[in-house]
Specification:
Elements: H1 17-33, E1 38-39, E2 45-47, H2 48-52, H3 59-62, E3 67-69, E4 75-78, H4 83-93, E5 99-108, E6 120-129, H5 134-151, E7 156-162, H6 166-182, H7 189-197, H8 211-215, H9 226-241, E8 247-248, E9 260-268, E10 277-283, H10 287-290, E11 298-304, H11 305-315, E12 327-331, H12 336-347, E13 352-354, H13 361-371, E14 375-379, H14 381-386, E15 388-393, E16 405-408, H15 412-419
Parallel strand pairs: 1-5, 7-8, 12-13, 12-14
Antiparallel strand pairs: 2-4, 3-4, 5-6, 6-11, 7-9, 9-10, 10-11, 14-15, 15-16
The structure holds histidyl-adenosine monophosphate.
């Protein structure tokens, strides 16, 4: 075992998997930019206070934060998510509204590592600040949906809910608390603790013991104000108009405290319930204000890259893009010619690799085969003297293997362009 390994819950993403990650972000960028979203790149680290606005009652803030004092005595934290940072940036830079942004990057949460759950993980997401319109919620939800389609995923389920306005929610939480407190003995010890901190999260309990009480709990829909109900109706009508199928899940509260009205989650149909949340989001109309800004509505989502890729594997879609070079240069004259030739080919836009250390022809050909290149370009003493290069196809199905031709150096690039 080497002395140093990645810390628990942290990983190295190596090629070719890393190419898949990059492509993931590229596809996301295309989907977002086609809808008028620009990229925002906030720092990895912020004042702890920014993230505390997510809500003290959430595990993300109370248990999982990577926070520490920096050398200047500031209490800072690695970002556990980006919504709070985006709101902080909005307050700081005062952009024109609606401010539509997308992002991609690593988040940090000190969680118990398991399949699909890491301490450093990547998200892509969008946020829209400064517009309060149910059809904007629909646009946001639909963009996530479009993105899954662009990846080729078919088994994604969309769950939506509304938590109502803060007043509705307060009345609901009071009713919910009364319900659970009336049956405290039947509640699991873990949920009794949750009840003290955040009664809504008891609805999230997956424990069998809690199931009957959770099923019998009051329904949020009975507590909506007319405005909240109208907003939620608008969201549903918009989703129907776009032909996006969804399920209303009255127990969808999500893990963060800032949500108001619309919440939603995309679940992977092929994954276990412990990691089937591919992504989610909702409205967070009070967050900008809690960070010192003017009251500003906000809505967005974040999608977990790891879990979405797990779903892709299960469905057999969105594999790693091919990474092989086009040509592989084999030079038995010392290597200087390979140096020149690869530089020339790369400048001409042909992906080229070569062998090093002046190995034998046989050993260089082995590396050429392994490289996945379509052709080997071979330069020996004769070729060097004649100003030619031997072009040898490497892949059987492309053309007859071994049917090699000598091509003049001056004709090489047009010849390869024709061939590849
Ligand atoms: P979240 O539900 O905490 O929401 O995270 C979104 C997604 O990130 C999850 O559905 C999951 O796929 C992924 N994720 C979360 N934790 C981990 C982990 N430890 N390992 C791997 N993947 C993970 C948010 O972060 C909100 N900021 C979403 C949002 C944006 N709401 C409004 N705007």
């Amino acid at each position: 075992m080497p002395e140093f390994q990645t810390s628990p819950g942290m990983r190295d993403i190596l090629p070719p998997e890393s190419a898949r990650w990059r492509r993931f972000v590229e596809v996301f960028a295309q989907v977002c930019e086609s809808a008028g979203y620009g990229q925002v790149i906030p720092p990895l680290l912020e004042d702890l206070g920014v993230f505390q606005r997510i809500g003290d009652a959430t595990d993300v803030v109370s248990k999982e934060m990577y926070d520490f004092e920096d050398k200047g005595g500031r209490h800072v934290a690695l970002r556990p998510e980006l919504t709070a940072s985006v709101c902080r940036a909005f307050v700081q830079h005062k952009p024109v509204v609606p401010w539509k942004v997308w992002y991609a990057g690593s988040m940090f949460r000190y969680e118990k590592p398991q399949r699909g759950r890491y301490r450093q993980f990547d998200q892509v997401g969008i946020e829209v600040l400064g517009a309060d319109d149910p059809y904007l919620d629909v646009e946001v939800i639909a963009l996530g949906w479009e993105f899954y389609k662009a990846l080729g995923l078919q088994q994604v389920n969309l769950l939506v809910n509304s938590l109502g306005e803060p007043d509705d929610r307060a009345r609901y939480v009071a009713a919910l608390t009364a319900h659970f407190e009336a049956h405290l003995d039947a509640l699991s010890p873990e949920s009794r603790v949750t009840l003290q901190k955040n009664p809504l999260r008891v609805l999230d309990s997956k424990r069998e013991q809690d199931a009957p009480l959770v099923a019998a709990a009051p329904h949020i829909a009975d507590f909506y104000s007319p405005e909240s109900a109208a907003h939620f109706d608008g969201v549903q009508a918009g989703l129907r108009a776009l032909g996006i199928s969804f399920t209303i899940d009255a127990k969808l509260v999500r893990g963060l405290d800032y949500y108001r009205r619309t919440t939603f989650e995309y679940q992977g149909g092929t994954l276990d319930s412990a990691q089937n949340a591919l992504g989610g989001g909702g409205r967070y109309d009070g967050l900008v204000e809690s960070l010192g800004g003017q009251p500003t509505p906000g809505v967005g989502f974040a999608l977990g890259l790891d879990r979405t890729l797990l779903a892709c594997e299960d469905e057999g879609v969105f594999g790693a893009p091919p990474q092989a070079v086009d040509v592989f240069v084999v030079d038995t004259t010392g290597g200087l010619e390979a140096l020149r030739l690869t530089a020339e080919l790369r400048a001409a836009g042909i992906r080229a690799d070569r062998a090093y250390e002046n190995r034998s022809m046989k050993s260089q050909m082995k590396v050429a085969d392994r490289s996945g290149a379509a052709v080997a370009l071979i330069v020996g003493t004769n070729e060097l003297e004649e100003g030619t290069v031997v072009v040898r196809p490497l892949r059987q199905h492309d053309t007859d293997r071994g049917a090699q031709t000598a091509v003049a150096r001056t004709d090489l690039i047009p010849h390869l362009r024709n061939l590849l």
